[in-house]
Amino acid sequence: MESVISFINSNRERYVEELKDFLRIPSISTNPENKADVARCAQYVSDQMNKSGLQNIQIIPTQGHPVVYGEWLGAPGKPTILYYGHYDVQPVDPLNLWSSGPFEPTIKDGYIYARGSSDDKGQVFLNLKSVEAHMKINGKLPVNIKFMIEGEEEIGSVNLENFITSHKELLKADVVLVSDTSFFDDEMPSIAYGLRGLCYMQIDLTGPNRDLHSGVYGGAVANPINELANIISKLKDKNGKITIPGFYDKVRPLTKAERDAYKKLPFAKKAYFKDLGIKETFGEKGYSILEQVSGRPCLDCNGIWGGFQGEGAKTVLPSKASAKISMRLVPNQTPHQTAKLFERYVKKLCPKTMQIKVTELHGGYPAITDITTKEIIAASNALHKVFKKKPLFAREGGSIPVIASFERLLGLKSVLMGFGLDTDAIHSPNERFKLDNFHRGILSVALFYDELAKMS
Amino acid sequence: MESVISFINSNRERYVEELKDFLRIPSISTNPENKADVARCAQYVSDQMNKSGLQNIQIIPTQGHPVVYGEWLGAPGKPTILYYGHYDVQPVDPLNLWSSGPFEPTIKDGYIYARGSSDDKGQVFLNLKSVEAHMKINGKLPVNIKFMIEGEEEIGSVNLENFITSHKELLKADVVLVSDTSFFDDEMPSIAYGLRGLCYMQIDLTGPNRDLHSGVYGGAVANPINELANIISKLKDKNGKITIPGFYDKVRPLTKAERDAYKKLPFAKKAYFKDLGIKETFGEKGYSILEQVSGRPCLDCNGIWGGFQGEGAKTVLPSKASAKISMRLVPNQTPHQTAKLFERYVKKLCPKTMQIKVTELHGGYPAITDITTKEIIAASNALHKVFKKKPLFAREGGSIPVIASFERLLGLKSVLMGFGLDTDAIHSPNERFKLDNFHRGILSVALFYDELAKMS
């Protein structure tokens, strides 16, 4: 391992330059106009797999964007890791808030800024570089590995369950490894053991059949924006409880042990407030902030639009108004059932003056994993050695729906060893990835292979 | 008058062609990028004044878009009419809902379709053609007339009060004439005797200082869209009453006589619902639809925006959300005082998790006029002769704030003789103007001059 480590340490500059090439590709999976970029990005991943020494590399088509697969299976008797990541990225709007171009990677104060730098290209890339280091120095890996990098994570991995189901043999492994999560705080390596699920909906309200003059019709014709606001205002009560009937029925309450563990996690409230520029939080009464953002479900409007949005004043009574509303789920809620409860309630709230359309845009299951397996212990040991700190085990508020799919479809548990930071601004303008975490990430994964091999 | 009438009837084709040129100019006053178009439109109005035989024509600059002035004062001892209109138009979005280009005037089924066709270019133009007809046939008018056509009506006539105040001598007259209102229904000529005022506000809410990942922060960080919806939902109660404290304090209740007059107005509820594609209305309980849209104040969201509005799903917890909200006012409410009540209430509703900015975008006073003056009787007689029906007197729901300004600053009452229809879709896609009303409008105004001269 000494020479692997020294190889990694002496290749830092090259790694960053290659990562930049990866980040320059605008692989926004939700935009039809970026389809060719997403395809180009899949090719880039495939080339990098080849460069790292993986074999049997394939760009496998799906109904949407392709999955890139590569493997190295030359360690008989040793465990097989299925590494999962994604090469697609979120949209970049609002573009005007970016300090540098979202696809012009820029280094500043020890961070690399670009869309996808932390979520998830930087993290996929560091895993490939761990493989590369072992292969370059030893010509082999201490474990078997399969890489499966998809292009639709940011649009809900819509074709991934089908893909997994139809490639069960190819994906056969002992454990899943994912680097798509964050450190608990800046200097504290962490292993995530729980993830929230997601149920993402859209409401479209239509009132009159055309935009009207608000002077001529205002006062008698119901306004879809006002009615949409009324509906949204009835989704949560003043205690932050979601009011959708049945919403909490399947929620597994946090146990006393879990709540005690939450209390032990470091949390600097003042710094949290300062970082976000807020004076107060608003969440479900009776739970701490950390519990609210990872151990309990929540509901947020992700977007709203209707009527006139330009400068100045237009006296329109609009025909339509829409909102995107998502709910984060915890075990044992399920996305589709939640969508049904949401739809039923929202339709009940909708007045007779409006026509309503409720659409389930996408969803993912919540997940929770056992933290006593040898794979988790190997990951913990690797992080401990690199970061000189015993990693924290924490639940994450975000969703990686595929984790639940791996368990359900392949019977595989996951190790969530991510190197992001909560301040990485993923999904926001000025997304970044800490370069020190990028480099230490390469070392950590390289060591993880070694630790896991030793324990097997 | 016979030869004036026959001149008008024989020039119909030319009138429409000239009107098309006027409508082709995208004089959207609220868009900075259309500034040159607005200036070009002022020049077009000035040219048309010249063609009609008006004198002392001037394009008078203001702090914003210019006012175009022209006069003919060759009838000593006869009344002087101050005609007011506007050459600016509303924005055109949503553009995709237009069947033909908003600035490519298109004739179909007896209507001319274009932005500004009814509001107010078509109506300004027909008044100029009435002057032209008298001048061409008789070389003179039976009354004195001053035309004052502004370019900022659609942005609240922001510089007009200053203009009136600094041009009191130039604008000296006996009565104001305005053609910017609608017939009560399709075949029923109408004179509007009341107009609602306007108070147009914008709310901007800021929560966290940047867009956040809704998985990482959702559940603890307050969401500006949800909070904006909460605020909007508290502006009206379930009986359609506006809940802003003090809002109704200055509202002059409808008298029994007024309510009886409302009851006598023709109103085809079924056709109204069908035209709008609605099943039910929603307004202030205890008032008829006609009372709700013209005799009582109301509150409408004219626009709302925040977060992700694109295709698909973006899991953002946005930093900002905004709404445009306007209130229509009735006598004796005042815009600025209403804005203060609105601001005070909305700020009180705003939770501590949010920063709020409340902006008064524009406002206008409501107005009500006496229907027994000789000018109103002359207008009524003219309409009766042309349309073969005694016109209705009705209050309008829209706002022409300048009407109140003329009264306050110049001591002048107005005659609101408009030729639009409520189905003209003003401020909406596919705005149109009925060509028959355009041509009969020219006749009506020409006869109005004559009737008024005879009574003076």
Give a written overview of the molecule:
The structure is a homodimer of 456-residue chains. By secondary structure, the first copy, chain A, is of the alpha+beta class. The first copy, chain A, folds into two domains: 2-195 and 366-455, Zn peptidases (Aminopeptidase), CATH 3.40.630; 197-251 and 297-364, Alpha-Beta Plaits (2-Layer Sandwich), CATH 3.30.70.360. Chain A is 35% helix and 22% strand. Chain A has helices spanning 2-9, 12-23, 35-52, 121-138, 160-166, 214-217, 224-233, 256-264, 269-276, 289-295, 335-349, 374-387, 401-410, 435-455, and strands at residues 55-60, 67-72, 80-86, 106-108, 111-113, 144-150, 175-178, 190-195, 197-206, 212-213, 298-307, 316-317, 320-329, 355-364, 367-368, 392-396, 414-416, 432-434. In chain A, the strands form five sheets. In chain A, strands 1-2-6-3-7-17 form a six-stranded mixed beta sheet, sandwiched between helices. The first copy, chain A, has a four-stranded antiparallel beta sheet with strand order 11-13-9-14. In chain A, helix 1 crosses helix 4, helix 1 runs antiparallel to helix 14 (435-455) and helix 4 (121-138) crosses helix 14 (435-455). Chains A and B meet through strand 10, helix 6, helix 7, helix 10 and strand 11 of A and strand 10, helix 6, helix 7, helix 10 and strand 11 of B.
